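User: Predict the structure for this protein chain, please.
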Amino acid sequence: MKTILNKSELVSQLERELKEIAILCGEYDNGNESVIYPIANRIVVIFHNSDQTKALVSLLKLGHLDLYCSSEIYDSKSLTNFIGLLKLTHRADKGWGYVARLDPFSLKSVRQENWWSNKKVIIDSDGSPFTRAKIIKSLANSSPLLLNTSGWTVKDANGNKSTISPIAETVRQIAFELLESFRDVDVNKESKLYK
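Assistant: Here is the predicted structure, written as structure tokens:
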């Protein structure tokens, strides 16, 4: 039998999910990369509608809320890979790598559907596009994310060449955008659910 939650229970659940994402982001920032999967799972609960379950934003009728986006604009004429949410930096101990921007000043409001399903945040070496939804759902389902990173070769601190994956840092940036989007939102007041 399916349990129906009322508005206050759904609001509490969304607030718990956001709080847990913030805690997991802290763990990630302290070096625990394995928390990327639980972060993805919690984001799926908030945004992904399936045949079996409805997303919290759908249940609470919060689809009208815009979300913050920090992605650069994809230039389809570019011949290089596109990694819109990250920046490439060099650290003395690790060499070159992608890192989340985590910059509140780079955020701009976009429609929720555009943020989740339409906006391309990665274009891989094969030219395949990846949205936030595609990345997050794949990680939450423990499905392999078929991302061709052959063009993302860099040198580490010792001068050794390696291929770097932008996925973990991309999830971190998506979580940052999500947390910033809901930081000052009174979910109970914004919800169009009336029961």
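The radius of gyration is 18 Å.
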